[in-house]
Amino acid sequence: MAAGKKAKNVGQSVKGKVKETTGKAVGNESLEMKGRAEQAAADAKQAGEKTKDALKH
């Protein structure tokens, strides 16, 4: 897996976690849901990259 894509996906996941935590802390459900969605998107991208790597070998 390209290190740049992996780092970008991890960054997006962390950003999503921050949004989720902030949303919980201030009682903003919309921000919390956006954070969860961002994490899910990052996880899906990461899984896609792992699948590509597995098919290359």
Mind explaining what this structure looks like?
By secondary structure, this protein is an all-alpha fold. The N and C termini lie close together (11 Å). Helix content is 91%, strand content 0%. The mean pLDDT is 91. It has two helices and no strands.
List keywords for this structure.
mainly alpha; 2 helices; elongated; 57 residues
Please summarize what this structure is:
The model has no long low-confidence stretch (mean pLDDT about 90). It contains two helices and no strands.
How do the strands and helices of this protein lay out in sequence?
Layout: H1 3-26, H2 29-56
Helix pairs in contact: 1-2
In N-to-C order, the SSE pattern is: HH
Number of β-strand runs = 0
Given helix and strand content, the structural type is mainly alpha
- If helices are DSSP runs of H or I spanning 4 or more residues, what is the number of helices? 2
Q: Give the strand content.
A: under 5%
Which descriptor suits the 3D outline? elongated
* Multimerization state: single chain
Radius of gyration: 14 Å
Largest sheet: none
